[in-house]
Amino acid sequence: MKNATVETYPRCFGCGQENPIGLRLSPQVDGDAVVASFVPKDDHQGWPGIVHGGIIASLLYEILENFAHRRGIVAMMRRMETRLRRPAKTGVEITARSWLTERSDREMHVSATLTSADGVLIAEGDAALVILSQAHKARLGIG
């Protein structure tokens, strides 16, 4: 799958660069995968020094959905499964990676991992993304 010119959404919580409380990810196509990095701050913690599980789930959500988006495919999450493996520490870079596992006319199945700078698996997940028709996109007002 090739990289496509994609529309940006500056206020998106996950990848919007103008959202002051967002994650501000910059996912990029890397061969057959989409990759982004994120350094969690103290504002992202649950337990002291440990990244909140909701932030971890949000990172997975974003990298899973961006697999389609970075290829110019407008899709929305139908289902997502998250498996938390190890705690992530604030201040330590997390690498998010997603890849396609299956595709049909209207659905994509994507998998993802989050790993720490030293290669430890933090979380993994899978998602089913629904590819939106022109009618759905028009009704939702998205491109």
Short description:
The protein has 143 residues and is α+β, with helices and mostly antiparallel strands. The chain is built from 2 helices and 6 strands.
Written description of the protein model:
The protein has 143 residues and is of the alpha+beta class. The protein has one domain (28-140): Thiol Ester Dehydrase, Chain A (Roll). Helices cover 17% and strands 35% of the residues. The protein has two helices and six strands; from the N terminus they run ββαββββα. It has a six-stranded antiparallel β-sheet with strand order 1-2-4-5-6-3, covered by helices on one side. The longest helix has 17 residues, at 53-69. It is globular and about 45 Å long.
Q: What is the CATH domain class?
A: Alpha Beta
Could you state the CATH homologous superfamily?
Hotdog Thioesterase
- Give the SSE string: EEHEEEEH
Report the biggest beta sheet as strand number plus sense, adding barrel if it closes: 6 strands, antiparallel
Mean pLDDT: 93
Instruction: Figure out the total of helices.
Output: 2
User: Stretches where pLDDT falls below 50 for ≥5 residues?
Assistant: none
Strands side by side in the biggest sheet: 1-2-4-5-6-3
Give a count of the beta strands, DSSP E runs of length 2 or more. 6
CATH topology: Thiol Ester Dehydrase, Chain A
- Count of domains: 1
Classify the beta-strand content into a percent band.
25-35%
Fraction of helical residues: 10-25%
The N- and C-terminal alpha carbons lie at a distance of 20 Å
Structural class: alpha+beta
**Radius of gyration in whole Å, from Cα?**
15 Å
Shape: globular
CATH architecture, by name, is Roll
